[in-house]
What does this fold into?
Amino acid sequence: MTVFVPEADRLLQAAAAYLEQELLPTLAGYHRFQTRICINVLRIVCRELQQGGALQQDEHARLVRLLRREGSLENLNDELARQLADGAMPLDADGLFEHLRLSLRDALRVNNPGWIEGG
It folds into this structure.
């Protein structure tokens, strides 16, 4: 992107800051609630832009180790779900708990980092 256009995450941060600091205090009821939702959506998208690629790479690497095969992230997740559903992978399989724990942590880092702060 050209140096004259700010990065998308900076634009999202600016929009969220305006909504929260300038607009939100002037609103009540329904519109205050909906504006709070918009602020949260902008912040989630910003975190996804900042962290999503690295988190997906980490998840992909864990799935390749766990399933012992290559594939797209989507296909590997589908395969894991299938194996768990049909019992081909036991719930106590080596690495499964750790993969699920890290995947949940990473999802929370994007969706609601306040839930994992300090832990």
